[in-house]
Protein backbone atom coordinates (compact mmCIF):
# COMPACT_ATOMS: atom_id res chain seq x y z
CA UNK A 1 0.00 0.00 0.00
CA UNK A 2 1.56 3.25 -1.17
CA UNK A 3 0.33 6.49 0.37
CA UNK A 4 -1.36 8.58 -2.30
CA UNK A 5 0.01 11.80 -0.82
CA UNK A 6 3.36 12.17 0.97
CA UNK A 7 3.04 11.96 4.74
CA UNK A 8 3.84 15.09 6.73
CA UNK A 9 6.64 14.81 9.32
CA UNK A 10 6.05 16.30 12.77
CA UNK A 11 6.93 15.87 16.44
CA UNK A 12 4.41 14.51 18.94
CA UNK A 13 3.48 16.75 21.86
CA UNK A 14 0.78 14.57 23.39
CA UNK A 15 -1.96 12.10 22.54
CA UNK A 16 -5.14 12.42 24.60
CA UNK A 17 -8.82 11.44 24.78
CA UNK A 18 -7.82 8.39 22.72
CA UNK A 19 -8.72 10.12 19.44
CA UNK A 20 -6.79 13.43 19.49
CA UNK A 21 -3.14 14.46 19.46
CA UNK A 22 -1.11 17.65 19.51
CA UNK A 23 2.04 18.01 17.41
CA UNK A 24 4.48 20.53 16.01
CA UNK A 25 5.09 20.59 12.25
CA UNK A 26 8.52 21.13 10.71
CA UNK A 27 7.73 24.82 10.11
CA UNK A 28 7.01 25.29 13.82
CA UNK A 29 3.23 25.36 13.61
CA UNK A 30 1.38 23.70 16.49
CA UNK A 31 -1.57 21.60 15.34
CA UNK A 32 -4.24 19.31 16.77
CA UNK A 33 -5.17 16.24 14.75
CA UNK A 34 -7.21 13.06 14.86
CA UNK A 35 -5.85 9.68 15.94
CA UNK A 36 -7.30 6.70 14.02
CA UNK A 37 -6.57 4.33 16.90
CA UNK A 38 -8.71 4.31 20.03
CA UNK A 39 -6.59 1.65 21.76
CA UNK A 40 -4.04 2.26 24.46
CA UNK A 41 -1.13 2.59 21.96
CA UNK A 42 1.13 1.40 24.77
CA UNK A 43 4.72 2.47 24.19
CA UNK A 44 3.89 4.67 21.19
CA UNK A 45 2.88 8.01 22.68
CA UNK A 46 6.08 9.44 24.18
CA UNK A 47 6.23 13.25 23.85
CA UNK A 48 8.95 14.29 21.45
CA UNK A 49 8.62 11.22 19.21
CA UNK A 50 8.98 11.78 15.45
CA UNK A 51 5.63 11.12 13.77
CA UNK A 52 4.10 11.22 10.29
CA UNK A 53 0.67 12.56 9.41
CA UNK A 54 -1.70 12.25 6.50
CA UNK A 55 -3.20 15.52 5.32
CA UNK A 56 -6.87 15.83 4.32
CA UNK A 57 -8.55 18.75 2.56
CA UNK A 58 -12.19 17.69 3.01
CA UNK A 59 -14.35 20.49 4.46
CA UNK A 60 -16.34 17.86 6.39
CA UNK A 61 -13.31 16.88 8.48
CA UNK A 62 -12.82 18.66 11.78
CA UNK A 63 -9.05 18.12 11.74
CA UNK A 64 -6.81 18.50 8.71
CA UNK A 65 -4.14 16.08 9.95
CA UNK A 66 -4.39 12.43 10.99
CA UNK A 67 -1.71 10.44 12.80
CA UNK A 68 -0.36 7.54 10.72
CA UNK A 69 3.08 6.53 12.04
CA UNK A 70 5.34 6.92 15.06
CA UNK A 71 9.10 6.45 15.27
CA UNK A 72 9.97 4.30 18.28
CA UNK A 73 13.71 3.96 18.83
CA UNK A 74 14.40 4.11 15.10
CA UNK A 75 11.57 1.76 14.11
CA UNK A 76 8.67 3.24 12.16
CA UNK A 77 5.36 1.87 13.49
CA UNK A 78 2.00 2.20 11.74
CA UNK A 79 -0.83 2.99 14.16
CA UNK A 80 -3.85 3.43 11.84
CA UNK A 81 -6.29 0.64 12.71
CA UNK A 82 -8.18 1.32 9.50
CA UNK A 83 -5.35 -0.19 7.41
CA UNK A 84 -4.85 -3.82 8.62
CA UNK A 85 -7.86 -5.23 6.75
CA UNK A 86 -6.59 -3.71 3.52
CA UNK A 87 -3.05 -4.94 4.17
CA UNK A 88 -4.27 -8.45 5.06
CA UNK A 89 -6.22 -8.53 1.81
CA UNK A 90 -3.05 -7.56 -0.07
CA UNK A 91 -1.20 -10.39 1.68
CA UNK A 92 -3.93 -12.87 0.77
CA UNK A 93 -3.92 -11.80 -2.88
CA UNK A 94 -0.12 -12.11 -2.95
CA UNK A 95 -0.33 -15.71 -1.75
CA UNK A 96 1.43 -14.95 1.53
CA UNK A 97 -1.16 -16.53 3.85
CA UNK A 98 -1.48 -20.25 3.27
CA UNK A 99 -4.04 -21.20 0.63
CA UNK A 100 -6.36 -18.26 1.21
CA UNK A 101 -5.56 -16.81 -2.21
CA UNK A 102 -7.20 -19.87 -3.80
CA UNK A 103 -10.70 -18.89 -2.67
CA UNK A 104 -12.69 -17.51 -5.56
CA UNK A 105 -14.65 -14.80 -3.71
CA UNK A 106 -13.74 -12.31 -0.99
CA UNK A 107 -16.46 -10.26 0.72
CA UNK A 108 -15.76 -7.57 3.29
CA UNK A 109 -17.64 -6.78 6.51
CA UNK A 110 -20.23 -9.56 6.41
CA UNK A 111 -22.70 -10.17 9.24
CA UNK A 112 -22.17 -13.36 11.22
CA UNK A 113 -22.13 -14.76 14.73
CA UNK A 114 -23.85 -12.93 17.57
CA UNK A 115 -24.56 -9.51 16.09
CA UNK A 116 -21.03 -9.24 14.68
CA UNK A 117 -19.35 -8.56 11.37
CA UNK A 118 -16.46 -10.61 10.05
CA UNK A 119 -13.65 -8.66 8.43
CA UNK A 120 -13.51 -10.97 5.40
CA UNK A 121 -15.60 -13.90 4.23
CA UNK A 122 -13.87 -16.11 1.67
CA UNK A 123 -15.97 -18.54 -0.34
CA UNK A 124 -15.22 -21.14 -2.97
CA UNK A 125 -17.27 -24.00 -4.48
CA UNK A 126 -14.60 -26.57 -3.57
CA UNK A 127 -13.25 -25.07 -0.34
CA UNK A 128 -16.43 -23.80 1.26
CA UNK A 129 -16.34 -20.81 3.60
CA UNK A 130 -13.49 -19.24 5.55
CA UNK A 131 -14.27 -16.56 8.13
CA UNK A 132 -11.28 -14.24 8.53
CA UNK A 133 -10.80 -11.80 11.41
CA UNK A 134 -7.88 -9.31 11.35
CA UNK A 135 -6.23 -7.73 14.38
CA UNK A 136 -3.85 -4.79 14.30
CA UNK A 137 -0.56 -5.35 16.16
CA UNK A 138 1.99 -2.68 17.05
CA UNK A 139 2.99 -3.51 20.63
CA UNK A 140 6.54 -4.67 21.35
CA UNK A 141 8.32 -4.50 24.70
CA UNK A 142 11.06 -7.07 24.04
CA UNK A 143 13.45 -6.94 21.10
CA UNK A 144 12.11 -8.82 18.10
CA UNK A 145 8.83 -9.83 19.78
CA UNK A 146 5.40 -8.47 18.87
CA UNK A 147 2.47 -8.97 21.24
CA UNK A 148 -1.32 -8.67 21.18
CA UNK A 149 -3.29 -7.28 22.88
CA UNK A 150 -1.66 -4.34 24.62
CA UNK A 151 -4.69 -3.88 26.91
CA UNK A 152 -7.78 -5.95 27.82
CA UNK A 153 -10.17 -6.54 24.91
CA UNK A 154 -13.44 -8.29 25.63
CA UNK A 155 -14.46 -7.66 22.03
CA UNK A 156 -11.38 -9.51 20.79
CA UNK A 157 -12.17 -12.51 23.01
CA UNK A 158 -15.73 -12.53 21.64
CA UNK A 159 -14.39 -12.67 18.09
CA UNK A 160 -12.31 -15.75 18.96
CA UNK A 161 -15.36 -17.51 20.41
CA UNK A 162 -17.38 -16.73 17.29
CA UNK A 163 -14.63 -18.02 15.00
CA UNK A 164 -14.68 -21.24 17.02
CA UNK A 165 -18.44 -21.44 16.46
CA UNK A 166 -17.88 -21.16 12.71
CA UNK A 167 -15.39 -24.03 12.80
CA UNK A 168 -17.84 -26.23 14.71
CA UNK A 169 -20.46 -25.36 12.08
CA UNK A 170 -18.19 -26.88 9.40
CA UNK A 171 -16.38 -23.79 8.12
CA UNK A 172 -12.85 -22.42 8.58
CA UNK A 173 -12.19 -19.79 11.22
CA UNK A 174 -9.01 -17.77 10.71
CA UNK A 175 -7.36 -15.10 12.81
CA UNK A 176 -4.76 -12.87 11.15
CA UNK A 177 -2.49 -10.75 13.34
CA UNK A 178 -1.17 -7.93 11.15
CA UNK A 179 2.00 -6.32 12.52
CA UNK A 180 2.55 -2.73 11.40
CA UNK A 181 6.28 -2.74 12.16
CA UNK A 182 9.23 -4.60 10.69
CA UNK A 183 11.51 -5.18 13.67
CA UNK A 184 9.73 -8.30 15.01
CA UNK A 185 10.56 -11.89 14.10
CA UNK A 186 8.16 -13.63 16.50
CA UNK A 187 4.74 -13.03 18.01
CA UNK A 188 2.92 -14.05 21.16
CA UNK A 189 -0.51 -13.56 22.68
CA UNK A 190 -0.05 -11.27 25.65
CA UNK A 191 -1.37 -13.35 28.55
CA UNK A 192 -0.11 -11.08 31.33
CA UNK A 193 -1.93 -7.96 30.11
CA UNK A 194 -5.12 -9.81 29.14
CA UNK A 195 -5.34 -13.37 30.56
CA UNK A 196 -8.98 -13.68 29.45
CA UNK A 197 -8.03 -13.05 25.83
CA UNK A 198 -5.21 -15.58 26.11
CA UNK A 199 -7.65 -18.16 27.45
CA UNK A 200 -10.08 -17.38 24.62
CA UNK A 201 -7.23 -17.80 22.14
CA UNK A 202 -6.35 -21.21 23.57
CA UNK A 203 -9.99 -22.33 23.45
CA UNK A 204 -10.27 -21.14 19.86
CA UNK A 205 -7.13 -23.02 18.81
CA UNK A 206 -8.37 -26.18 20.48
CA UNK A 207 -11.63 -25.81 18.55
CA UNK A 208 -9.72 -25.60 15.26
CA UNK A 209 -9.34 -21.86 14.67
CA UNK A 210 -6.26 -21.14 12.54
CA UNK A 211 -3.87 -18.29 13.32
CA UNK A 212 -1.43 -16.49 11.03
CA UNK A 213 0.95 -13.63 11.81
CA UNK A 214 1.88 -11.22 9.00
CA UNK A 215 4.78 -8.79 9.31
CA UNK A 216 4.91 -5.61 7.24
CA UNK A 217 7.65 -3.42 5.85
CA UNK A 218 6.82 0.07 7.09
CA UNK A 219 8.08 3.45 5.93
CA UNK A 220 6.58 6.93 5.54
CA UNK A 221 6.20 6.13 1.83
CA UNK A 222 4.37 2.80 2.03
CA UNK A 223 3.32 -0.19 4.12
CA UNK A 224 3.80 -3.57 2.46
CA UNK A 225 2.93 -7.07 3.73
CA UNK A 226 6.18 -9.02 4.10
CA UNK A 227 5.08 -12.60 4.72
CA UNK A 228 4.47 -14.75 7.78
CA UNK A 229 6.48 -14.92 10.99
CA UNK A 230 6.50 -17.46 13.81
CA UNK A 231 3.99 -17.51 16.64
CA UNK A 232 5.21 -18.42 20.11
CA UNK A 233 2.23 -20.44 21.31
CA UNK A 234 2.08 -21.51 24.96
CA UNK A 235 1.21 -25.10 25.75
CA UNK A 236 -2.55 -25.55 25.90
CA UNK A 237 -3.91 -25.62 29.41
CA UNK A 238 -6.95 -27.63 30.43
CA UNK A 239 -9.89 -25.28 29.97
UniProtKB/TrEMBL annotation:
InterPro entries on file: SfsA (IPR005224), SfsA_C (IPR040452), SfsA_N (IPR041465)
Regions crossing the membrane: none
Pfam families: SfsA (PF03749), SfsA_N (PF17746)
Domain Sugar fermentation stimulation protein C-terminal: 83-222
SfsA N-terminal OB domain boundaries: 13-79
Entry similarity comment: Belongs to the SfsA family.
UniProt protein name: Sugar fermentation stimulation protein homolog
